[in-house]
């Protein structure tokens, strides 16, 4: 029972990006994933990449108020890591997996699919931002990333007033959306 409470605390900590919770999950569970990857044609770097990606999937799920982990963290991370590694092996045509003992079946395909879709969309957004041009890229970064006010943006970019800066930001967003959705429609990041 105590370990279940600890696991709930770790998930709660993960959901709020608590460094100690993330470190505890890493210290407690990385070894299992590392062994699995190394025993299945992987390297140390592969193990780190796969574990990091599995942890991101768990992190994204933990942010949802409806999320309820119905298994141990170890089991969830193992299932996600195993699926991610299998996909990578299939992609590289090296498909022979060895299990390391515990095979609890957990349905993580939907979680991984959502994670991969989000990564694809991030790639498309990066592409759109890279191709939007200046000053749009800088204006959007100033507003959305650095959280500058319209007055600061007007001053920095030489607009006569905040309203003109706001109009330019709007035009930049329209342009960004056009580039993004052109990529989205084609399915290319």
What does the model show?
With 189 residues, the chain is mainly α. It has 2 domains: 2-107, Rna Polymerase Sigma Factor, Chain: A (Orthogonal Bundle), CATH 1.10.1740; 112-186, Arc Repressor Mutant, subunit A (Orthogonal Bundle), CATH 1.10.10. It is 73% helix and 0% strand. The protein contains 8 helices and no strands. The chain has helices at residues 2-15, 19-38, 44-62, 73-91, 109-131, 136-145, 150-157, 162-186. Helix 2 crosses helix 3 (44-62) and helix 3 packs across helix 4 (73-91). The chain is elongated and about 60 Å long. The termini are far apart. Residues 95-105 have low confidence and may be disordered.
Describe this structure in a few short sentences.
With 189 residues, the chain is an all-alpha fold. The protein contains eight helices and no strands.
């Amino acid at each position: 029972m105590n370990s279940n409470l600890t696991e709930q605390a770790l998930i709660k900590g993960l959901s709020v990006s608590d460094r100690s919770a993330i470190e505890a999950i890493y210290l407690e569970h990385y070894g299992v994933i590392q062994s699995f990857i190394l025993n299945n044609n992987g390297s140390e770097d592969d193990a780190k990449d796969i574990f990091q990606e599995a942890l991101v999937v768990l992190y994204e799920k933990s942010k949802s108020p409806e999320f309820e982990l119905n298994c141990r963290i170890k089991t969830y991370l193992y299932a996600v890591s195993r699926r991610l590694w299998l996909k990578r092996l299939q992609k590289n045509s090296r498909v022979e997996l060895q299990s390391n003992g515990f095979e609890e079946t957990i349905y993580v395909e939907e979680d991984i699919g959502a994670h991969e879709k989000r990564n694809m969309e991030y790639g498309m957004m990066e592409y759109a931002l890279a191709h939007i041009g200046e000053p749009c890229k800088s204006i959007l970064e100033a507003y959305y990333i650095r959280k500058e006010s319209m007055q600061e943006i007007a001053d920095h970019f030489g607009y006569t007033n905040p309203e003109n800066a706001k109009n330019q930001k709007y035009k930049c967003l329209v342009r960004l959306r056009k580039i993004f959705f052109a990529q989205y429609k084609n399915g290319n990041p």
